[in-house]
Each structure stands twice: as C-alpha cells, then as structure tokens.
Amino acid sequence: MANSKLFSCLIFLLFVFNTANSQGLKVGFYDKACPRVEAIVQKVINDTMSKAPSLAGPLLRMHFHDCLVRGCEGSVLLNSSTHKAEKDAVPNLSLRGFQIIDNVKTALEKECPGIVSCADILALVARDVTVADKGQSWQVETGRRDGRVSNITEALLDLIPPTSNITQLKSGFQRLGLSVKDLVVLSGAHTIGTSHCSSFTDRLYNFTGVGDTDPTLDPEYIARLKLKCKPDDTTTLAEMDPGSFRTFDVHYYTNVAKRRGLFQSDGALLDDGETKAYVGLQATNHGSTFLEDFGVSMVNMGRIGVLTGTTGEIRKVCSKVNES
Ligand code: HEM
Fold first, then answer.
1. Hey, where's the site called Transition state stabilizer on this chain (predicted)?
2. Is-catalytic flag, 65?
3. Residue among 235, 126, 280, 250 nearest 190 (CA)
4. Which one-letter DSSP state was computed for residue 307?
5. Which is the closest atom of ligand 1 to the Cα of 161?
6. Is residue 240 scored above 50 in pLDDT?
7. How far from the centroid of its chain's Cα atoms is residue 128's Cα?
8. Nearest-5° angle of CA 312, CA 112, CA 66?
9. How do residues 201-227 score in pLDDT, each as one tens digit?
10. Quick one: pLDDT band at residue 295, thresholds 50, 70, 90?
11. Domain covering 166-300, topology
12. Domain boundaries, the chain
C-alpha cells in the first residue's frame, strides 16, 4: 500500500516536473486554454486578404523582423515610449499591417482574455498569409511569450541589410541558429510582396559611387527597373516577383537564377555552392520542394530566442507592455 502511494506520488512529481520543463513551444499549445485560436486568426486574416491582399507580404515580413531582434517575442509590435522602439528603425518603417495584428488580438482577447501572446499571433499570421497567397500550410508551434523591451539601436544592428553579400548573410543566419538551407529557403519569401525602389536603386544608378550599375544584375532587368524607379524615388513600390507577386510560388528562384533577384542579398545566393544548387533545383520547377521546405524553415525561424514558461508576459495590447 505504502509502496503504491509512493509510486503514485512519484508519477505525480514526474508529471509536474516534466510539465514545468517542457514549457517550450509545441503545436497546439492553446488546445485547452483557447481551442479556437487558430480558427479566429485565420478568419481575421482571410477577411483582411479579401479586402487588402497587398498586406500578405508585410505581415509575413513582420514575423521575420520580430525574430531578428531579441528573438520572436513580439518586440517589433511595441510603440516607442520614453525611448525609441524597433518599429521606428528605418528598415522597419516599411512594415505595414500593425492594425491587423491588433484586430487579431482584439478578437482573441474577446474569446480568451490574457491567453494568447502577440509573438504567437505573428507566427500564426505569417502562416495564414502564406496560405492565402496559395502557399503550402505548415503546423505552427505556439507557446511564445511577449518581451518587454524594444530598442531602435538593437534593430539597426540586427536587421540584415539588402546590400549583404553571401558571407554576411550566412553569418547573420548562423548567429540566429539558422542553417544555410534556411537562408536560401526563407529568402524565397520574396516571391510575394513589393519593395520600395529606394531599397535597390543604388544597383541601377550608382553601385560603386561612380554612376554605374551592379554587374551581377541582368542588364535587361536593370532597363526595366529604371523605367519604374527613378534615382531618388522613395515612394514607388516595385513587385518583388513581377507577374506573380501575389502568389506564393517558386518564381523567386527562377528570377534569381536569371540574375533578376531584386536585392544584392537575393543575387548573392548564386555565390555559394549550396545556395546556388538550391536555387538551380527550384528554378527548374520539376519536383520543386520549396513550398514544403518553406514551412520547415519557418518553424526553425519561429524558434529564435523565444520566451516561454514563466518568462516574459502575455501582453493585453500588442503595441504596449503590460503595466506592472
Ligand atoms: C535574407 C535576408 C533578407 C533581406 C536582406 C531582406 C530584405 C528585404 C527588403 C529590403 C525588402 C523591401 C522593403 C521595402 O523597401 O519595402 C524586403 C521585403 C520583403 N521581405 Fe525580405 N529580406 C530578407 C529575408 C526575408 C525573410 C526571411 C522573409 C520572410 C520569411 C522576408 C519576407 C519579405 C517579404 C514578404 C517582403 C515584401 C514586403 C512587402 O510586400 O511590403 N524577407 N525584404
């Protein structure tokens, strides 16, 4: 009798201990506390996509930019207060769709107050906009908690510029715990969305400061881009994947293979054996694995520097930390 009591006690302790230690990310983290979370996010996103399809790109990019600085903990969503936040860093000024994240949060707070983190909302939204653009779905791990710090200086240091060469890209991704494969796969997100001309006009007009063009960019493509983007244009948007910029397909790789990647960081994928081989394989479109690979790499990206368990908090409003 005493033995079986001891045994039950041990099992109980093991359970408690195990729960306390496996408070990492998992698929279905909210199954008990907020079972309709994914359906609610999906509904808001589908409604949004039917009215404003151009928000798919910015919302996918937002999760990446969140994860780059301090990990995927929702810091990109915080407004500046006494000090400037990540949101105000120049590379983040082109992010859009914060209102949609707020709409999702409002809907979730109504259903299950104080349960779902803003960091998880970003991860779920990134998946749902990809699917809305005809990409392939993946299972999103949840259980992230929200950070309380957002700092413009960190964003300026950690966000990866479009002028990066392959060495900088590889080391940047390595620092985040991501592989070279993740780099080439996640860059494929540039199959949707638009870019401001100013993010690449140096390649068209003044590559090395002597009025030259980037020799690695296809001259025909340069001519076409010049029609769209004048030298000091800071407002015009160019399609990242002309012709199918609202469809999540393999055309990004076809472009890169033809030396038509919009940024130096896209073109740089031809400067490394592994990334070049991947681009070549996907560009042929026969037996492309990109759509499946993307989900796998997004899960990897979504694990960067997460706060779980009792660290961080579940913000009430995504744009500001909870009052303590
Ligand atoms: C590899 C390093 C990367 C660099 C240097 C980079 C850089 C950029 C830049 C400069 C823009 C254009 C911003 C503008 O001028 O409006 C952009 C757009 C975009 N990026 Fe990236 N990016 C990278 C990786 C990623 C990743 C990993 C994702 C997502 C998983 C992503 C998703 C997007 C999307 C969807 C857009 C279009 C945004 C829109 O439509 O407004 N990027 N990126």
1. 61
2. yes
3. 250
4. B
5. 5
6. yes
7. 12
8. 40
9. 999 999 999 999 999 999 999 999 999
10. very high
11. Peroxidase; domain 2 (1.10.420)
12. 25-158, 166-300
